[in-house]
Amino acid sequence: MADTLEADWNHALRALADAQDEYEQLASSDRQRLDEETRQEVLALASDFPRIWRDEKTPDLQRKRMVRLLIEDVTLVKGPQTIQTQVRLRGGATRSLDIFKPLTAGEARKTDTDIVHEIDRLLDQHTTGEIALLLNQQGRTSGEHKPFTNRIVQRICRAYNLKSRYQRLRDRGLLTVVELAEHLQVTRQTINIWRRNGLLEGHSYNDKHECLYDIPNEHSPCKSQGQKLSERSRFPQVPPQSTNEVQDAT
Question: Rounded to two decimals, what is the model's pTM?
Answer without folding.
Answer: 0.53
